[in-house]
Specification:
Cyt_B5_heme-BS; binds protoporphyrin IX containing FE; metal ion binding; five-stranded mixed sheet; single chain; iron; rod-shaped; Flavocytochrome B2, Chain A, domain 1; alpha/beta; 22% helix; heme binding
Length: 261
């Protein structure tokens, strides 16, 4: 408490007082001061009339604010409440809502996938548009020669040509299947779910490469096939290459198989 402070009247609202002898501004809260004021009071030049600082100060700072004309019977809290919204112009408002919706220029954009990919696709997906499971294996990229596209294979399937390499339905024993491994001029056969197919004509059409397909030659190819691409329909793609059915060794093979040896 400063000894220089004016002694306030116990009946009046406590007045602000100078702490270091500085004069108190004329905007006193006392009713007598208000009565002496008229509306010609010039607002202080600072803060500016429409500034944010002024907006945050009690309304009694603005003589043009009608609230100061009211008697001090209002609760003190009401006197200290900020004026009705008279905010300084928001510089963003003039730029439209697009400004507030604009995506920051730093950091990854949403829904854009990984920032970059080895195939150069900006969307981070393979350029083929097909996302395939890899089964933990690195798939070989095979360039099929001209005329050996999947469409070409489909055309060949419908051509009516004999793609099985045999004249009739065969009963194939495991040993006979093993002999048809594609070597020494022999055809490549492979079994799938008990059926035997001649995979030789498909070798140059196989998207995974001839070498991969040859791994199934002379044996049951189902396991290898399902490991790599279980979504591929073997029976549809190889239907015209059907040689016959796999039978037990004791059952014996067909006569035509013996002719091929
Ligand atoms: C007659 C049986 C087979 C047929 C009809 C066949 C068919 C196909 C087809 C249609 C594709 C393309 C798949 C795609 O793009 O989604 C493909 C790819 C492939 N196949 Fe086969 N396939 C056969 C057997 C095999 C076997 C036995 C192997 C492995 C030993 C194999 C290995 C592959 C590989 C590595 C690819 C490449 C996959 C990729 O590019 O992501 N295929 N095959």
């Amino acid at each position: 408490m400063s000894p220089e402070r004016d002694t306030p009247s116990p009946q009046t609202t406590p007045k602000a007082s100078a702490i270091n002898g500085a004069p108190i501004p004329s905007f006193s809260l006392s009713s007598s001061d208000l009565a002496d004021e008229d509306n010609d009071v010039v607002a202080p030049s600072f803060p500016a009339t429409n500034s944010a600082q002024r907006a945050s100060v009690a309304p009694t700072l603005s003589p043009r604010n009608p609230s100061i004309q009211k008697p001090l019977l209002q609760p003190a809290a009401a006197q200290l409440m900020p004026p009705p919204p008279r905010l300084a112009p928001n510089p963003r408002v003039g730029q439209g809502t697009a400004a507030s919706l604009r995506v920051p220029t730093t950091g990854p954009l949403p829904n854009r996938g990984p920032p970059s990919s080895s195939n150069g696709s900006t969307l981070g997906v393979p350029s083929s548009g097909v996302v395939k499971p890899t089964n933990g294996r690195e798939r070989a990229k095979v360039n099929l020669g001209p005329g050996y596209s999947p469409l070409d294979w489909a055309t060949l399937l419908k051509s009516g040509k004999n793609l099985s390499g045999v004249t009739g339905f065969q009963r194939v024993t495991p040993s006979q299947l093993k002999a048809m491994n594609g070597r020494k001029g022999r055809p490549a056969w492979s079994s799938y779910q008990g059926k035997v197919y001649n995979i030789s004509p498909y070798l140059p059409y196989h998207p995974g490469g001839e070498g991969e397909l040859r791994r199934a030659a002379g044996k049951d190819g189902a396991k290898l096939f399902m490991e790599v691409h279980p979504w591929v329909n073997w029976e549809n793609m190889m239907g015209e290459c059907l040689v016959g059915i796999l039978v037990s060794e004791e059952s014996g093979g067909g006569a035509s198989l013996e002719d091929m040896d």
